[in-house]
Amino acid sequence: MDRYPLGLQQYRAAKLRVYENAKTCIVNADDGLTMPVRGADERCISFGVDVGDYHLNRQQGETWLRVKGEKILNVKEMHITGQHNYSNALAALALADAAGLPRASSLKALTTFTGLAHRFQLVLDHNGVRWINDSKATNVGSTEAALNGLHLDGTLYLLLGGDGKSADFTPLKRYLAGDNICLYCFGRDGEQLAALRPEVATQTGTMEEAMRQIAPLLKSGDMVLLSPACASPRSV
Description:
CATH architecture of the largest domain: Alpha-Beta Complex
CATH topology of the largest domain: Protein-Tyrosine Phosphatase, Chain A
Radius of gyration: 20 Å
Strand order of the largest sheet: 6-7-11-8-9-10
Largest sheet: 6 strands, mixed
Oligomer: single chain
Order of helices and strands: HEEEEEHHEEHEEHEHE
CATH superfamily of the largest domain: Mur ligase, C-terminal domain
CATH class of the largest domain: Alpha Beta
Structural class: alpha/beta
Number of strands: 11
């Protein structure tokens, strides 16, 4: 940002130049700052969680990828989960359609893609319990993305901890409400993280110790999510 003395709007204007010579613009309807300065025009195809040409549709407990009113794919058929991943899938589908790729090929890719290592990665689905490795979530924003829009039938066992490097963890509090969540906090900032909701928090010395405590509690429908919101020193 030091290169942009006028601040965020100057930075935005510089980045939006990418649209100037584009025949088609894929734009995020959920983020107004990424929209072209002159607004969406006929070149623009939008995607978003609730709005956009490509969006999510939720009905009777099911979530679908939807294109201009048509249900395209039930997210249950995808290996990746999480609202941020569904949003990414919408963007990829919009781009593939704009490039003229066969829709069938795009849907096959979405149903076979297993995600990137350590990024909300499903590492085990056993006895109805999903184990998710989101260890690349080493800051608060990344953990917020993992928790935003997360729905499950059972209990969420959330592993938080490490060295937050003086981060403000309070934005996480809005995602920690409800009766179906348990926090297991460890590492240098474990105490501070546990204080976000102490009545459902357990502090442990290490992540491994947290895993041992969680294992006998698990039931079908539960999820164990490692999304630490911190850097992970060797002691973790």
